[in-house]
Each structure stands twice: as structure tokens, then as C-alpha cells.
Amino acid sequence: MKETVQIGSRGDFGLWAIEVAKHIVSEQGFELAKAARDGTEDEVRAAGNALGQAITNALLEVYDGLLEEADAT
Fold first, then answer.
1. Band of pLDDT at residue 66, cut at 50, 70 and 90
2. Which residue among 15, 16, 18, 22 has the highest number of C-beta atoms inside a 10 angstrom radius?
3. SS3 assignment, position 32
């Protein structure tokens, strides 16, 4: 999910956040559920950490974009 999105309003941000959340849940959430059902404790922990990292990456992506925008003005 590396396409550039122009966020010009709170509504745009909301739509972006929903799409990113759907993407994260469809990938990482499925892996976590599968690990919880069939995996070991270590696999569940790893899948949970991957989910947390995906959320962190998305938040940092927004933060970096805000900094780039502030530097451009």
C-alpha cells in the first residue's frame, strides 16, 4: 500500500484511515486469527507484533507526510 494520497481535509484523512485499517486488518488480522487458531504461543505473539508494527508504520507514514508538508510551506 505505497500509493501517494493527497489529504486536504479531515474527511480525506478519515477515508484514508479507513482504507489503511481495512488493508491492515485483512492482512495482519487474518494472520493473527490463524495463529490464534492453529499456532503456538510464539506464533500468536509474532502475529500480534506484526499487527502492531503495521499500525505503527501507518501512523509514522502519516506523521512523515505531515512533516514533509510543513517543510514545503
1. confident
2. 16
3. helix
